[in-house]
Specification:
By secondary structure, the chain is α/β, with parallel strands linked by helices. Helix content is about 30%, strand content about 30%. It has eight helices and 14 strands. Strands 5, 6, 7, 8, 9, 10, 11 and 12 form an eight-stranded mixed beta sheet that branches. Strands 2-3-1-4 form a four-stranded antiparallel beta sheet, with helices on one face. It has a two-stranded antiparallel sheet with strand order 13-14. β13 and β14 form a beta hairpin.
Amino acid sequence: MTVHNEALRDHACLIVHGPDQPGLVAAVTGLITRHKANIVSLDQYSDNPEGGAFFQRVVFHRPNLTAAFEELENDIATTLEPYGMTWRLTDQSVPKRMAVLASTSDHCLLDLLWRHRRGELPVSIPMVISNHTNMAEDVRSFGIPFFHVPSQGPDKSAAEAEIVKLLAGNVDFVVLARYMQILSENFIDDVAVPVINIHHSFLPAFIGAGPYRKAKERGVKLIGATSHYVTKDLDEGPIIEQDVVRVTHADSAADLQRRGADVERAVLSRAVLWHAQDRVIRHGNHTVVF
């Protein structure tokens, strides 16, 4: 049974992306008018009006959206074909299905589960997968299935195959909530949905274990976090959100780690929210976030 957010029933979101050219806005708004729909919000951006790229996000209300959805999709395809645009249409009342992968650090995972329980994230969470068992009871206390998939040694293929099997057909995107495993290119291809990661913003500095201890030894004055989409290039995918906080000489390595965890939670939750609301458009190694 499909779960709906009643506040967003009959609300659709149309994302349009492609070469900028005259007539695009008129084409989209005219299409919406033809279907007797009302625009709720409209954001657009062009990175260069002469030969650049155009990005648009339109949320509109159309009574009996479910019945009209296929007709809308067909009309959008026909209308935008001459412009060479890519597009996607989503029913905003249907929460995206989000799986979470985690290891031993619980701050990002539990923050997402807590925000979800409070209704702050428009997602459903069909499962949490971890290569450790220390968070199993915490996860299950939220009423969410927990799966333990061990991942040890240099060959991760069996673990990745098991995770792909669990995810297949059950999720719309995946969040790595401090999942401390390097994913293979095959995994990224096989999972076939967007994957969002969170990490400290020191990279490529202070790589490896103990980054906050290393940062303290170096005397940094800023710490932060980055959330990005996962690609085959490690920690180099399109950035969704970043934030920083100032620190001083008086902050210990433990203080840095605690304050860094706060920033990681906030940055990841914003990235997840914006992705779930269809606010992020990927463009090469960049994102446009409306």
